[in-house]
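Progress report, Aim 2. The chain analyzed during this reporting quarter is listed below.
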Amino acid sequence: MIDFTECPVRRKTYAGANGSKISVVYNDNIYMLKFPAIASKNQVMSYSNSCISEYLGCKVFESVGIPVQEVLLGTYRTPKGTEKTVVACRDFTSPGVVLQDFASLKNQIVDSVRNGYGTELSDIQDTFEQQTAIDATILKERFWDMFIVDALIGNWDRHNGNWGFLYDTQTDEMTLAPVFDCGSCLFPQADEEKMNEILSDRNAMNLRIFNQPLSAIMQDGKKINYFAFISSLQNQDCNQALKRILPRVDLTEICRIIDETPGLSDIQKKFFAGMLSARKERILDFSFKKLKKLERSGKEQLR
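Predicted C-alpha cells for the chain:
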C-alpha cells in the first residue's frame, strides 16, 4: 500500500456525505483522498470498508471498458496518530474544466417542477430526451451501462449527484465524466464474520443477490430491485446495455484484480470473488439467457 501521509495537501475541497476527503499531490497529480466512513449499521466495525469498495468497484468498471476515475489504495496517518486505509481518486478536472452532476442537468429543464436529485426513473428518462447539452443516445447508454455494472457490484447509491459531466467553461462544451463514487458497493459494512456467514449460508447469499441491495433509482416511488427489473426485460435500453456489457465481464480478470489488491485478507478475497461471480450468474447471465430466448422466439414468429 502507498503511504500518503507525507503528500502535500492542497486547499481544494470535495463534497459528498460518506467519509472525510482531502486533496493531495502524489506523483505530480492531484488526488482526492477518501477516508472510510463510520460503519453506522455494524457496531462491531469502527469504520466501513468503503475505501476498498471504492477501489474494487472502479476496477470492475475499468475491466469492462467504461471510463472511470483512476484509483489507488493506501494508508494515511491522521494528526492523532491513527493509521487508516484510504483510497486516492485522481482528480479528473482541470483549469477551466469543472465537474457537473446529472442533477444539475436535470434542473435545466425549465418547464419541469421536478427535483434535480429525484431519482424516479421516468423523470430521469424524460431528462435524457429533453436536455440539449449532450447527445441523448450517449447519455442513455452511459446511464444504463452504469446500471448493469452497478447491479453486478451491488451499488445501492448511484443517485443523480454522483455521476455526470465535465463542463469546459471556455468552450461551453460538455462531455461525460468518468464514472466515480463507487464506495457503496460490495457490502462495505460487512466484517469478516459476516462475510463467512454469507458464504456458508445459501439463504444469506440469496438475500444479497436477489433482494439486497436495491438501486437508488426508483420506479413508481419504490427503489428498483436489480434482479426483478433486469430479468423482467421491460426496458429496451436496459436490455441493450445488458447485451453490451455482459460479454465484457471477465471473471478471471476480476478475480485477478481482487487477488492483487493490497491489504485484503483471504476471506475478503473469497467473499468479493464469490459475490461477484454469484451476482453475475444469477442476475446478469440469467437475464441475458432469457433475453436471447425471447429474441429467438420473436424471430421465429416473424418467419
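The longest strand covers residues 83-90. DSSP finds ten helices and eleven strands in the chain. These observations will guide the mutagenesis work planned for the next reporting period.
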